Structure formats: structure tokens, C-alpha cells
Amino acid sequence: MKKIVTFGELLLRFSKPGQLRLTQGDMFTSKYGGSEANVAVSLATQGENVTYITRLPDTPVGHAGAMNLAQLGVDTSQVLYGGQRIGTYYFEPAAGMRAPKVIYDRANSAYFDLKPGMIPWRKILNDCAYFHVSGITAAISQQAADATFEALDIADELGVTVCFDINYRKNLWKYEGADPRGTLSRMLSRCDMMFGDAVEFDWLTQHAQPPFTAVDSSFKMQMDEYRAWFDELHHNFPRVKNWMMGMRNEVSSKHHTLTGLLWTEGKLLQSPIMDIPDVIDPVGVGDAFMGGWLHAISLYPEDKQMQLNYSLAAAALKNTIPGDFNLSTEEEILDVLEGKYDASTLYKAIK
To answer: What's the average pLDDT block by block, 10 residues per block, for the chain (351 residues)?
Structure first.
């Protein structure tokens, strides 16, 4: 079984129960998460051999985070311990016409203080098939960005396939000299396969694309315009051979539509449009796309359309699961892919 390594910051997520605002009530609920950890858990739940790399404080909270991932099947044996605190974020879900809210508290975390030379990348990546990073790995601090490029250099040297998620978070790029577009473009030029949502693609390329405004599965995509747009992207970043884009339209806070596009070998593929009428938690949907894609490569090595469709089904299911992690198994994702359940009813079936 191929080994997959993901790298990023593990976070502790705080929310108020139910639909309470952050300013209401006197109790927080907490869950572990973070983009690259989400991908690792998704892969482990689907049966992949995945190692997660991060730096956590040598405290009960830090060790509990690693234990949480290990209990879900992720290899955490290479987690680095040190620093003062774990990064956190506060999440207020959408309700009706009220938009969701995310507040980060990541300054001076254990990962914030990560530096090149701390992680034995040659040892970790020596037998690795895929190395997954995202834009967030370079957004926290300059030293964390340097450590990310150190890892990318060694992955290149060892011939590891590099997977990249844009994951642009404008509220994270706070350090002196931060250059998000330049840094993420440098990362993208070092990668072999790339995922992002439509908003992130627009921001990175500064080239608007046709809007995705589906209210149900009958929506018609402007495929010729998308194809020309992806051709231009590949011309600018020729190393990337496979580009996947997730597209979501929020019809209401609880009703979303979701689809995906995959540009590969000069062809542009579209998944079906998934109608999700009862969204439980939309956090981590892009990470579920990425985890589904990496697993689908094993399931359908020669069938790019099935890789895309499986990725979409995995992402759709994440909307039905509370927390950051997609805890959907391969069997459950295949059931959705084959039409046995839709995303709104599967949660009720497994709850």
C-alpha cells in the first residue's frame, strides 16, 4: 500500500452548542481539526496508509490531539513536540441569512515557531508516494513557510508526487513581508496535482471564471469557458498535470449544491451536481475532496472520471458530518456514488 504524508498545523476548534453565536451562552464545545489533518483522517478512514506531520506542544492538550488522530487510524509517530501552545480557531455556523464566522488564534503556536531543520524530511519522505501540503502551511509564519519549502525541496529530490490545496485564508497572512499570491504561486510551481475551490482559483489567477449558481442538479455548466481557463492555468504552471476544482453554491445556509471539475491531459471532466438539502457542517469539504481524490487514484487508477465522481461523493458526505473530519468510509462513499443514498439521508442512516 502506498504511503501518503500530509503536513500542516493541527488546531483545536471551539464552537457554542447548537446555533448559538460566539457571544451567547457560557459553554464551548471543542473538536480537533485543521486542513491537512482533515485530509489525513479522511484517507485513514478510507483505508490508506497515511502519516501526519506537525508540531504540537508537549502538553496534555497537544498529546490529546495526536491521540485523537491515532485513534482514527492516522500514523502520528513522527509528530514533533515543543513550543508553548496549540493553535485554535472559533467557528460560528451559518443560520438563515446569517453568514458563518471563523476567528483564528494561531500566533506563537507550536507550529508557528516551526523552523527548517526540525523535521527529518528525508527519513519521513523516503518511502512516500504522495506528499500533501496546502497554502495554510506557509501562511502562519515566515519560519513555517521556510520549513514548508524545505519539505518541498526534499520531496522533489526524492521524486515524491506533491499534492497541493490552495487553501488561501486572507486572515492568516500577517507576518512581515508576507506575500500570499507570490508564495502560493511558488508552491504551485513545485506541485504535480492541485485542488482548490472556485473562489481560490479566481483569487490566485486574478482571472474570473463563469459563476456556479446551481440551485439543483439541472444547472448547465459553461464548459468551453472553463476549458480555456484551465488551459491557460496549465500553460502558466506546466508541472501540474491534474487540476481539480470544487464548486459550491449556497442556496441557503442549509441547502448547498456541489460539483467538481478535473482538468487532466488536456481534457476537462465534470462530475454530476450534488444537491445537499440538509447541510450539517460544511467545514472541511475541500479537504474531503482532496482525501477522496487521493484514495480514488488507488480505486480507479486509469479512470479519471471515476476519480472525480468519487471525490465529489466524499465531499458531499462531509457536509452531513459534524466537525472538521470526514469520517465516511469507502463503502459509504461508494453507496452515494452508486445512488443508494443521497447526502442528506446517509447521515440519518449512520447516526
So the answer is: 94 93 93 97 98 98 98 98 96 89 95 97 96 97 97 97 96 95 96 93 87 93 93 93 96 95 95 94 96 97 97 97 96 90 47 35
Burial of 238 (0-12, 13-18, 19+ CB in 10 A): exposed
Residues with Cβ within 8 Å of 225's Cβ and at least 6 positions away in sequence, in order, are 209, 210
Q: Helix 142-158 and helix 180-188: axis angle, to 10°? A: 10
Q: Model pTM?
A: 0.95
Cα–Cα distance list, 16 to 56, 90, 213, 351 (Å): 25, 9, 31, 21
Inter-residue contact 295 to 48 (CB < 8 Å)? yes
How far from 195 is each of 3, 41, 286, CA to CA, in Å? 20, 18, 8
Residues paired with 51 in a beta bridge: 5, 75
